Amino acid sequence: MAEQSAPRARPLSPHLQIYRWPVTMATSIAHRVTGVALSAGTILLAWWLIAAAMGADAYHVFAETAANPVGQIVLFGLVWSLTYHLFNGIRHLAWDIGHGFAVSTANRSGVVVVIVSALATLGILVLTHGISR
Amino acid sequence: MTTPTPLARVEGLGAAHSGTGHFWRQRVSAVALIPLSVWFMYAAVRLVGADRDAVVAFLHQPVNAIAMALFVVAALHHGVLGLQVVIEDYVHTEGWKITLFLLNQLLAWTLGAVSLFALVKIAL
After folding, report:
1. Which of B38, B55, B72 is closest, CB to CB, to A52?
2. CB–CB of B75 and A45 under 8 A?
3. Is-contact A110 A89, C-beta < 8 A?
4. Which of A74-83, A98-107, A122-131, B79-88 is least confident?
């Protein structure tokens, strides 16, 4: 029986790495990932506030951590997560009241959210790290 | 075609016995976070690289202290609800699920208490 293998490969059940990623799937996954990242970010938010409340030494430790390259990358990721989750969240709320469900509209609004959140993040980057400061 | 809704299921509020409560609170906090997030980004941009005195002076103003408190509470509430769904989706062992539900809630309460204590200390 072992010799009588199938003459050609049978189709397999597709999984995440088989599917071409549609815009709506990618934006949905990104919404969840950024949401989890932002939840983790509330730990840093609490640290920032309590450090400011405790005194100059405690704040210095926070500021040094935030200013080093790893801190900057984490904060940059959180800024993009916040802008993305904010704009995509508005897209979700529009769906909740029944707007934008057509496939073409959902794809277009997904692309718009990605572009607008990237621009907003770059804008914040320029405002905080630009030459004017 | 109609969709019958048996009275027993309505009274039991569905499989989770919580009805639409989770869905609704997620949306209310989402709507609240639209203006609050915009304000938070404005505050963050203003305070990046500032020293401790400038941060304290900013948060000492009642409007800023209240806005930051609202942002913290809304963000933590929204985050707890969101993480709960993530846990429900991926964790199917009852013991682990309950443990993570507890950690999710208790960590958020702790972060809320720390953040609000800090804000009160700065603002008063």
Report:
1. B55
2. yes
3. no
4. A122-131
Whole-number Å distance between alpha carbons of A89 and A32: 11
Closest CA to A86 of B26, B44, B25, B31: B31
Mutate one of A16, A29, A32, A49 to test the B interface: name it (highest B CB count within 10 A): A49
pLDDT tens digits along A1-57 = 455 665 787 777 767 666 778 899 999 999 999 999 999 999 999 999 999 999 999
Report the alpha-carbon distance of residue A83 to residue A96 in Å, rounded: 20
Residue A116 confidence (pLDDT) above 90: yes
| Cβ atoms of residues A91 and A108 within 8 Å | no
The token duo for A89 is 């969240």
B interface test, pick of A45, A90, A96 with most B CB neighbours within 10 Å: A45
ipTM metric: 0.88
How many angstroms away from the CA of A13 is the closest CA of chain B?
20
Q: What is the rounded distance in angstroms from the CA atom of residue B4 to the CA atom of residue B103?
A: 38
